[in-house]
Amino acid sequence: MGNYVFKRVLMFVPTVLLLSIAVFFIIQLPPGDYVTSYVSRMSAEGEVFTSEDIDNLREQYGLDMPWYYQYGKWMKKIITEGDFGYSFSYNRPVWSVIMDRLPLTVAITLIIMLFSYFVSIPIGIYSALNQYSVGDFVFTTIGFLGVGTPNFLLAIILMFASFTLTGDPLIGLFSEDILREGLNFSNLGGFLKHLIIPIVVIGTGNTCGIIRTVRAQMLDEVTQQYVLTARAKGVSERVITYKYCLRAAMNPVVSGLAGSLSSLFSGSTISAIVMNMAILGPVLYEALKNQDMYLAGTILLTQGFLVVLGTLLSDIALAWLDPRIRYAERSY
Amino acid sequence: MVLHKRKNKKNKDDEYYLASQWTLMGRKFKKHKLAMVSLWVLGILYFVALFGNFIAPSDLVAYNSKIMNAPPTKIHMYHEGKYIGPFVYGIDMERDPVTKRKVYSENMDEIYKIQWFTHGCEYKFLGLFKSDLHLFGVEEGGAILLMGADSMGRDLFSRMILGSQVSLTVPFAGTIISFVLGIIIGGISGYFGGVIDTAIQRIIEVLSSIPSIPLWMALSASIPPDIPVVRMYLYITIIVSFISWTGLARIVRGKFISLRKEDYVMAAKISGVSNFKIITKHLVPGFMSYLIVSLTLGIPGMIIGETSMSFLGLGIRSPATSWGVLLQEAQEITSIATYPWRLIPLFAVILTVLAFNFIGDGLRDAADPYK
Known about the structure:
CATH superfamily of the domain at 100-289 in chain A: MetI-like
Number of helices of chain A: 15
Largest sheet of chain B: 4 strands, antiparallel
Radius of gyration of chain A: 25 Å
Oligomer: heterodimer
Number of strands of chain A: 2
Largest interface: A-B, 50 and 41 residues
C-alpha cells in the first residue's frame, strides 16, 4: 500500500507541470494581448496612444516575448516566490485577487459535494433494493431530468420560480443585510436560504449521476453468487447489503470523485455567472474577456490542480477500498 | 402439440444464434420504449431544422420596431361569433402611464387571415436553390408571432427554428471530429504502446483534468471576434468535441491493448497484412458498438457546451443564431418575469438533451445483445 501511494504521489508532480504548460498555452492563444484590449478600451474613452507607448507597455508586462519564454518566467516565479503574476485589470497580484474568492469557492464546492453524496447514496441503495417500486420510479425520473437539464438553465428556471412565488429571486450568495453587517446568527437563516438554489443547481447533475451509478452497481451486486452464499450461511440482510454489496458498489463512485469535482467546478462557473455569486466563476469570465492572462491562467490552473489532487486522493482511496488494485500494482 | 412447440422454440433459438450482432442490437434497441420515442422526437426536430427556412415565417434579419417584446399572438377562428377560419388580429401598442413599458393589445378591427404556402422573404433552400415559399404567413400588414417577439421585434418562433439549424448540427460535426481524433490518437496510443502511449495518456489526463466549461470558455475566448460565421461554427465545433474525444481515445486504447494480443491479429500480421489494414479491418469493427454508445452519450454534453458558450456571448454571434444566443435575452430575472416567452428555447434544449440521453441509454443496453 505504502509503495503504491508513493508511486502515485510521484506521478503527481509531472502531471501538474504538464497541466501548467497546457493552461498557459491556452491562455495565450487569443490574438492580441492585454495591451491590445487595454489600448482599444482606453482609445474608446478618448485616450491617445503612440506606438511607442504601446511598445513600452508590452515591454513592461513582458508581453513582447514568445509564449514559452513567458511561461518559463511565470513558472519560475511561482516556484521560487509563490508569485502567480500580476492581474492587469485589478492592478493587484493575481493571488490576492484569487484568495478573495477561493475559500468561498472551495467551501461551496465541498458543501455541494457532501450534499450530493449524502443524498444520492441512500437513494441509490433504496432504488436498487426496491427496484420498480413507486419510489424507484420517481427517483429514476428525477435522475434523468437532473442529468438532462443544463445547470445554468435550471438556475434560470428556479430563480424565476422563486421570483414568482415569493417575489425574491434569491440572486447571489449573500442578501443585502449580510453584506452590510457581516454574517451573524440573526441572518444565518437568510444565508442558508440563499444556498438552496446554488446547491440544487450545481449539485443536481452530480447527485443524479451518482444515484444512477449506485443503483446500477447495487443491482449488479445483489445478484452475485457470494450474496446467495452469505444468505445461505445465515448472514443478516443488513450485513449483506452494507458490508458486502455496498463496499463493492462504491468502487465506481470513489473512482468518479475527480470527475464529479471537475463537473462541480464546471457547473459552478457558469451558474455563478448567471446567479451572480461571489465565487471564482465570474472572475474567470471577466479575465478571459479582458485577456487578463495571468489571472485567467491561475484560476484554470487552480481548478485543474484541485481536480488532479482529487484524482490522486480517489486513487489512494480506491486502493484502500479494493485490495485487487494494490495487489495488481505490486505484481507489476 | 408439445413437440411442435418445442420445435418452434428451437427455430427461434436458431434464429437468435444466426442473427448478426447488429440485428440483435437493433432488436434490443426497439424494446427500449423511451429510446424509440426519443428517436421520433429527434427525427421531428431534425426534420424541422432541415426545412427551417420553409417552416419559419420570417428570416433572421427581419425586424419590426412596432412589435418589440410583443407577446405571442393568439390565433382565432371566430370573429364576433362568425367563423372565418384561422386569423390573427392586428397588434396595438400603448405605453403604460406608470411604468412607461410598452403594452400590446389586440386590435379587433384589423383581421389578418393565416395563409398557407405564402410567398415571403427569400432564402436559399439547403443552400442550393432560391425560394420564397413559406409554410404559413399572414396577410400583408399583420404579424404572426407564435412565441412572441424579442427586444428588437424579431419573431422568436422563426429564430428558434433557424437557431436549431446550428444547435442541432454542432453536436454532429463535433461527433465526427471526436470520432476521428479518438480513433487516431487512441489507436496510436494502444497499438504502438511504450513511450508514445505514456506521453499521449499523460496529455489526455491533463486535458481532462481541466473542468470542461472553464476550458471551453478559455478556448472560445481565443476565437477572434470578427471572423465569418462558417469559421466561427467550425471553431465552436472543435471546442465542444473536446468533451468526447479524450474519453473515446481512452476506450480505443484499452480495446486495442486487449485485442492486439488475440490470435487472429497475430495471424493477420504473419500473413503480411499492413498495420493500417489490421487496425481498420480487424480491430475497429470489434468495438464499434462501444464507440457508438460513447459517442451518443457525448452528444448531450456538446449541445450543452454550445448553448453555454453562446449564452455567455463566447459562442455563435449574430447575424447567426442558436438556442444559446436566444437564451441570452433570458439571462436576467426581470426580463423573464416580464417576458416569460423568452424561456421557450430552453425547453427545446432540455427536450433535445433528454432525447439524446435516452437514445444513448437504449444503445448502451443494446450494445451487449448477448447479455
